[in-house]
Each structure stands twice: as C-alpha cells, then as structure tokens.
Design brief:
The protein is an alpha/beta fold. It has nine helices and six strands. The radius of gyration is 18 Å and the shape is globular.
C-alpha cells in the first residue's frame, strides 16, 4: 500500500530538542507561577489548575502549591496534560508578541509543503498540547504551516509509547494502518506505532546510524523516500 498519510513527532524530528529544552521550557518555567496566579479566575486557567490538583492527588492544594507542583513537573519533563496546556497558554503570548519563534530544521518546511501538494495528509502527534503544536507551526521560522496539517494529536489521545494511541489515530485518520507513516526519533514510540500496524521511520538527527531496531531511518526529511517504504 502507498503512503497516504504521515504522522510526525515534533521534538527531535521536525524541531531541535534544544529549542524545546533550552528555549520553550525555561520560558514557561519562569512565568508559570505568576501566570496561574494572575489568571486563576479565568475559566480555562481555572480548569487546568483543578486538573493539576486532581493529577497530583492534592484536591485542596492552593494556587501557590499548584505552582510548585507545575515546576516539579517541568523539571521532571512530565507528560501531564494540564501542565502542557498551561505551557501552551504561556507560549501563545510569547509567540504573539514576537519573543518566541518556532524552530524547524531547514529542510522540514519545503518537504512538508511538497508532501501536501502531492495529496498526502499531514498530521502531528506530540506530547505537547494541541495548542502548543499550532503555535509552533503557526509562528515558525518558515511562516504559518498550520494549513498543511489535518490533525494535531496530543496526550489526550493516549501516551506516545502505547500502541492503542496509534490505533485511535488510525481510526481518526480513517485509512488502513499500512497507509500511515509515523516519524519519530524515539524507538519506543516507533515500536508502539508499528505494533498498531503503522509504517515507521526513525529520524536520526544525530547521525548515530544504529539503534533503531527494524525501523528504517533517515537523517533529514529530504532523504525520506516514501516509495521505498511501500
């Protein structure tokens, strides 16, 4: 079967890990406590504060305590939905005022545009929230790329190392699993996608050349030959 849809990871795949760890995370970390304190009465923020309380098992936690919990999760690189949502809110302000711009590897945008023109459906699956994904690609160094994508999947559909998450993605895309290609730099994610029947390809941005198991790999997007994966 030919590839009809692509689902791509972000961090380490389309975007430098350093951008996330050295730019985005510190930006949110420096602002998250004051942000929730200043916006705690707003419905969207209040809902995420409550979700953080429930996730932490501290239903009576003060807003100050929730701020401490959020900092701990950031330091642990926890894949927790309320944290990711709040980070996305903070990043939105940064992207909108121009203090943040989404990093992409140089060849990514041209290849994404080429695939889109070929009629291949493009989708994102990241542990970052849907809002954060749209901000990065909407305010990228290559311009607004959000019109290229059909779906933005995040942890609400499930963990990235769980085969069931990829089955749900396949059902949403409504194509046969072998018609969908998943791109990531994390072998455990690729293994989960393969277990769900998706085709997989590892992005070897560090030019390691090994350690990807049975998954084919490429260093750059413009080295990916979709016809060779059929």
């Amino acid at each position: 079967m030919t590839i009809q849809a692509i689902v791509t990871d972000i961090e380490g795949t389309t975007t430098s890990i350093a951008f996330v760890t050295e730019v985005l995370f510190p930006y949110a970390r420096a602002r998250i406590q004051t942000f929730i304190a200043a916006h705690q009465t707003e419905p969207q923020v209040a809902a995420e504060i409550e979700a953080a309380r429930q996730e932490a098992g501290e239903p009576e936690a003060s807003v100050e305590r929730v701020g401490e919990i959020l900092l701990q999760w950031i330091d642990q690189d926890a894949k927790v939905t309320p944290l990711k949502t709040l980070q996305g809110m903070i990043w939105r302000a940064g992207y909108q005022d121009g203090s943040l711009q989404g990093h992409l590897y140089p060849e990514v945008a041209p290849v994404l545009r080429q695939w889109h023109q070929q009629g291949i459906q493009l989708n994102i699956y990241s542990s970052g929230s849907e809002a954060a994904q749209k901000l990065l690609f909407g305010h990228s160094e290559a311009g607004d790329l959000t019109p290229l994508f059909t779906h933005f999947f995040d942890t609400r559909i499930g963990g990235k190392r769980e085969p069931e998450s990829y089955r749900r993605i396949q059902q949403t895309i409504a194509l046969a699993a072998p018609q969908i290609l998943f791109l990531s730099d994390v072998v455990a994610e690729l293994d989960a996608a393969a277990a769900a029947g998706l085709r997989t390809l590892a992005l070897d941005r560090q030019c390691i050349g090994e350690g990807f198991g049975s998954h084919p790999h490429a260093v750059r997007f413009d080295q990916i030959d979709l016809s060779a994966l059929c």
